[in-house]
Design goal:
The structure is a homodimer. In chain A, about 40% of the residues lie in helices and about 10% in strands. Chain A is of the alpha/beta class and about 550 residues long. Chains A and B meet through helix 1, helix 2, helix 3, helix 4 and helix 5 of A and helix 1, helix 2, helix 3, helix 4 and helix 5 of B.
């Protein structure tokens, strides 16, 4: 009997047999992106338990045929969600650049190891170095053209696996810059508590994660205020820089270029001024806002980013490139050279072993080819058009939300993301009375959060329109029940430069249909609440649900 | 005039036009793996400067056509190195599993975000959880079948971007376990210096990198001795555990299951005994050795790994899966739960938001599909055959090296990697006299290193056979010039389960040809050195060149 298992390795199979299988993998991928495998929905909904029932099984012992493998993978695709579907409005990670996909496929075959040049990744190391130079130029950093390459210490940037990690790397570099003695003696040798200054309410979770992972602890964060527009309050930042709490030393200020909840953009010039005045490392988290750098028209919103000591960019967020694609850049190119295990090698213009200046990474693949290919394929002109078109599409979608009369905005930006609650006009009128009865505020807030969750959940389960869902404080008191009130909110993030008219109308109709079904129940609950004698449970807002709530 | 730039996004192009382009990407990849784009060589050699001349250029403004994009990517492929070519003998990262390639292509299209289940990665989260459960079973850890899923705190493992990172995560988890107070107060609150105990000479660079990045500093490493076989000396480990240096607390012992230079495997049982006795976290770095877990016959070499508190596995190393594919596993499943930002969510069996227990990672892609697909396609039986065949092939290649009479082994293993110098029999005989003249030792060592580098370099530039090149101490005094002597050595790492006879003969002939050309010159230099009146320069051994030397 012949062995039922097909050969495992490319080299042990006829070339055309491999070609056929891999072309079928592409076709399977296209059947997913076209919607065919998803019944035309953004997703076919199932719970954790249902999918565990479907996919769990014992460790495979015997193997399977090529056909069965493809069918298994197709089944996974059938229960996956499309972030590239225009009705997916939770997050900007569309990953649907054809150039990036092309490059990603080729990079899998090349399997270069970016730890080193010789024996590992000759051309790939050069392409990645070139890309980093281009990104520095876009940020407005001083640039040494690659043709004048002077060694790794002059490069000033690195690929990372994501924005969380880019922020980790920036913090590690800032620590190494501020406390060079820690390279040998660790943070125990530092006499004062090093702290990162950032605004609460607009921060990404990565700063707390990094403070804990890098040995600072959560005490390593110092919170400034946020403005009602969900940006860092520079007056609050200044006060804390002028008089930090006793025993603490602020070694980094975080400026946010597009926060993860409403994509509000900080006043980076003012923050840069403050950081220069107080001699503190200035980090700009541009994971969301970085795509604006490609547009001459829009990049003015990021003015001052070129004065940051470090910048985090996240092309897999908002630049149409699939995961993983993120970059940490440093104004002083030598910031990464300080991590070099062999400083003399890092200064050698014949050495392009990127592993010498990429903390946290050793052997790793050619992920940078994707963004390089997108830039080559579309040029900055083409990318600029995509980013500007997306912003116009986003404004159209905000108008759509508003004309439904179903929602109240808590935070907006003119970039690509906003946050809102489900509060139809009729219900809003009914509860207006509550604004003057403080004893009812908590109950009304709980009602709004509950129905916002219910609305988002119904939509999500239907698989027709997907918003994000997370907790947000009503800093501007848009709802009128206090600035300290926290709600479950929906987030809309428009990742798509173009949404066709019929799809837009379909989204609007879906929102109206689901709203109608919920509004009556919400009205009833509101009336009961307003006439109740006993106070209700009040607020109970979970802090995490959708991706941006993290 | 029509716009010369092709549409950027999948959704803005006719489906069949995208299909054609992406099939061509597959074909381009196959032209690389088949050798066609490499003139049949492992690589077409070029220097850093030459490739910078070829590839550097200004930031693209105008974009380019699909055809030009493909041609640019093809040109990169022409100057890339094939780790999957059987004559590539430097590193085991072949990445040529057809199932993994298939999965990698589909995963690019799916672009799931493994940070969360709902709205991000429903099926993918389940598949990754399933894979982690399988890997735990292979290690011999207690396993909760996925069908009985009890929440993230019961999962006990995570994907990472590479072995460097898996080791970082293990160290972070060990710190969080040993010093729970550091989560809030950081390492400054720890009264004694926490140190990792590991054997010098067999360690991977990641421990020093992690000690620096995680706030311990290089003082956070404590060095035990290595045995002449390049394994951790358990007697030395025991001595240090029994009486650590004053002010230091050993919080982790590293056991090495396949070191990165000779793949020697530690006595994990003995190390586990010692760690239990002294109550210290036991980490096993199985980045190289992990593939042996698939073979019933070979896994006995890793006995004791199931007693480790944490294990690092690296399927992109030695398991035919392309980058990035690495895993950190924990015997106590809750070790990762300790990083959860919302501990109650981590215990909820309806929550499968992996981002809650993956330090360093937020948004990230479906990289785990590759290894899942390989295991599904080949089963443990198929993978076991590959691993066992590779070991047999490695032994044949060691025999080949030895019968050339050109080399002297400094370190071998029966797994897949060895280290040796270029020292042809004639030269060895000529310098035998030097062994009794200590004043000549340094010069002879320098001669051997110089010719080893020259030999490896000639081979590499020819693009015909690629060995690794790095510095190694002659711990067993195989050369007879002292156990403290450090040489530039070549490393041979056999990543390929099968090397065809004609290829094997070609490799042998290439080695003999290059050896012949160098032997005469080396003999002349050796005679000059032995008859010289003045002592020569002596040793000058760089510490880093090839990937494994890192």
């Amino acid at each position: 009997m012949s062995d039922p298992q097909p050969p495992a390795l490319l080299s042990s199979r006829p070339l055309d047999d491999s070609r056929t299988l891999l072309h079928r993998a592409v076709d399977l991928g296209l059947d997913f992106t076209s919607g065919e495998l998803r019944d035309g929905l953004v997703l076919r909904h199932a719970t954790v338990g249902e999918l565990i029932d479907r996919f769990s099984g014992p460790i495979p012992v015997a193997g399977t045929s090529d056909d069965q493998l493809l069918e298994s993978v197709a089944e996974i695709a059938r229960w996956s969600i499309s972030q590239a579907d225009p009705r997916y409005l939770a997050f900007p990670d569309t990953g649907d650049s054809i150039a990036a996909l092309t490059a990603d496929i080729v990079a899998s075959f090349l399997n270069q190891n970016l730890i080193a040049f010789d024996r590992s990744a000759p051309a790939a190391s050069v392409i990645e170095a070139q890309l980093i130079t281009w990104l520095r130029e876009l940020v407005g950093y001083p640039v040494t053209p690659l043709a004048d390459y002077q060694g790794l210490a002059s490069l000033g940037g690195m690929w990372t696996s994501g924005g969380n990690m880019s922020n980790h790397v920036a913090i590690a570099a800032a620590l190494a810059h501020t406390y060079p003695e820690a390279r040998r003696s660790g943070l125990r040798a530092v006499s004062e508590q090093p702290v990162i200054l950032l605004a609460g309410g607009v921060e990404h979770f990565s700063y707390l994660a990094a403070a804990q992972a890098l040995g600072l602890g959560s005490d390593g964060l110092l919170w400034a205020d946020a403005t009602p527009d969900f940006t860092s309050d520079t007056a609050s930042v200044e006060r804390l820089l002028a008089s930090p709490p006793p025993g603490k030393r602020i070694f980094m200020v975080v400026g946010v270029a597009g926060n993860c909840r409403t994509t509000g953009i900080d006043d980076l010039q003012q923050l840069a001024d403050l950081c220069r005045q107080y001699g503190v490392w200035f980090h700009v988290d541009a994971c969301h806002g970085g795509s604006l750098l490609f547009s001459e028209k829009l990049k003015v919103q990021l003015a001052g980013i070129e004065r940051a000591d470090s910048v985090a960019l996240d092309p897999h967020k908002g630049l149409f490139v699939s995961y993983p694609s993120s970059y940490a850049l440093f104004r002083d190119p030598n910031a990464l050279g300080r991590f070099a295990r062999y400083p003399d090698r890092a200064d050698d213009p014949d050495c392009l072993d990127l592993g010498l200046i990429t903390p946290f990474y050793g052997s790793r693949g050619f992920e940078s080819l994707k963004l390089w290919a997108l830039m080559k394929h579309q040029g900055t002109e083409g990318i600029s058009r995509l980013v500007e078109d997306r912003q116009a599409t986003y404004q159209r979608m905000v108008d759509l939300l508003e004309r439904t009369g179903c929602f109240r905005m808590l935070g907006t930006s003119d970039f690509y993301r906003c946050a809102f609650v489900f509060l139809p006009d009729q219900v809003a009128q009914a509860i207006e009375a509550a604004a003057v009865q403080p004893s009812l505020h908590a109950s009304v807030r709980a009602l709004i959060s509950r129905y916002t969750m219910a609305f988002a959940d119904r939509l999500y389960r239907s698989g027709t329109v997907v918003f994000d869902l997370f907790a947000l404080q009503d800093l501007a008191d848009h709802i009128g029940l206090g600035t300290s009130a926290k709600y479950q909110v929906m987030g809309m993030c428009v990742g798509h430069p173009h949404i066709a008219d019929d799809i837009e109308h379909g989204i609007e109709q879906t929102l109206l249909d689901h709203s109608q079904e919920l509004t009556a129940a919400m009205l009833t609950d509101a009336h009961a609440l307003l006439t109740a004698t006993a106070p209700s449970d009040g607020d109970s807002v979970a802090d995490v649900t959708g991706p941006a709530g993290w």
